[in-house]
Amino acid sequence: MNITIITVGKLKEKYLKDAIEEYSKRLNRYCKLDIIEIADEKTPDNASEKEEEAIKEKEGQAILNKIKDNMFVVAMDLCGKQLTSQEFSDYIHNLGVIGNSNVAFIIGGSLGISKSVLVRANYKLCFSKMTFPHQLFRVMLLEQIYRGFRIMKGEPYHK
Asked: At which positions is S-adenosyl-L-methionine bound (predicted)?
């Protein structure tokens, strides 16, 4: 399976880079992983709703430019479906079974994901109704993908 994570923003913190590197290394056994970083647009202080939408759309166009036609797109969205780790594992497994072996997970920027990306998404997934920094969320997503593959293979990790 090919997993692509398309994410807005660059990691700056070493501890997050180290965690990404660790989970990327662990995932090598299970899938081909590619992480694509999209530059985040600067949001001016006191930006209007219209300005924020324009920023999201600009980031969204950059995301859409990285999505290939054959990719099954999972947008990380607060309005998406919440799954347990077991259900997430089953979901990834079932995608492969039905022939969707190129899966792209989309992590938006600090303002969220544009409407155009949400329209392109095949599935919307929500980890929690809480808000997380998108840089930290990248680690959380990788950990859950890793956990999902471990569950699939019946390997110890999940409790």
From this structure: 108, 127-132
Q: How far is CA 66 from the centre of its chain?
A: 13
Q: Give, in order, the Cα–Cα distances in Å from 99 to each of 54, 76, 103, 142.
A: 35, 21, 10, 22
Considering the entire predicted model, what is its pTM?
Answer: 0.94
CATH number of 139's domain: 3.40.1280.10
Tens of pLDDT, residues 49-85: 999 999 999 999 999 999 999 999 999 999 999 999 9
Q: What is the pLDDT of residues 120-143, one digit of tens each?
A: 999 999 999 888 888 899 999 999
Binding site feature residues:
108, 127-132
Is 136 among the domain residues? yes
